[in-house]
Amino acid sequence: MSIDVGSHLKAVRTLYGLSQRELAKRAGVTNGTISLIEQNRVSPSISSLKKVLDGIPMSLAEFFTVDVRTNPQVFYASEELTDLGDAQVSLRLVASKRLNRSMAIMHERYQPGADTGGDMLSHRGEEGGVVISGQIELTVGGQARVLVSGDAFYFESALPHRFRNVGSEVCEIITASTPPTF
């Protein structure tokens, strides 16, 4: 599937409330350059597009994946969740293409013995969740506890933390964090 770069740039610029002139000024290009790209009269190189997107600011990856519909998607089928994990830990993010998300909601699955890694995680914000099935050992700061189906957690994400499936079956968790780290 190819993307109409010009129309997409115009939609992104509009979502951010920028005029062509303002984006051009921020990006250090001419107003005409923005106009020509948006009309698909010129096809920008990757480096030129990156320079324009730096004026928003937005990465190339965000540009090509952001949902620019005027009516944002509300419902998501299971196959529409973006999996950010691997074979041992599935981290399925809800609304990964939504622009300016203020939270991340994840459907997480940990295979028996799987964990988030040897290094403790730490990032700004808060996170919480509910264990749906199985069991998970959650370590937060100096505290560790095995949580089972129905148990929940909520903590400051700046505290070093780690998730580890100590059970013999897959552990399923629904989590939310703010601000979104993905």
In short:
The chain is an alpha+beta fold and 182 residues long. 23% of the residues lie in helices and 28% in strands.
Measured on Cα atoms, how large is the radius of gyration? 21 Å
Proportion in helices? 10-25%
Strand pairing plus helix content: what structural class? Answer: alpha+beta
Which band does the percent of strand residues land in?
A: 25-35%
Major sheet, described briefly? 6 strands, antiparallel
CATH architecture of the largest domain: Sandwich
Return the domain count.
2
CATH superfamily of the largest domain: Jelly Rolls
Count of DSSP helices? 5
Instruction: Using the alpha-carbon principal axes, give the shape.
Output: elongated
- The average pLDDT value, as a whole number, equals 90
Description:
There is one protein chain. The chain is of the alpha+beta class. The protein folds into two domains: 5-65, 434 Repressor (Amino-terminal Domain); 78-178, Jelly Rolls (Sandwich), CATH 2.60.120. 23% of the residues lie in helices and 28% in strands. The chain has helices at 5-15, 20-27, 31-38, 46-54, 60-65, and strands spanning 82-83, 89-93, 104-110, 126-133, 135-140, 143-148, 152-156, 161-164, 171-178. The strands form two sheets. A six-stranded antiparallel β-sheet has the order 1-2-3-9-4-7, with no helix packed on it. Strands 6-5-8 form a three-stranded antiparallel β-sheet, with no helix packed on it. Strand 5 and strand 6 (143-148) form a beta hairpin. Helix 2 (20-27) packs across helix 3 and helix 2 (20-27) packs across helix 4.
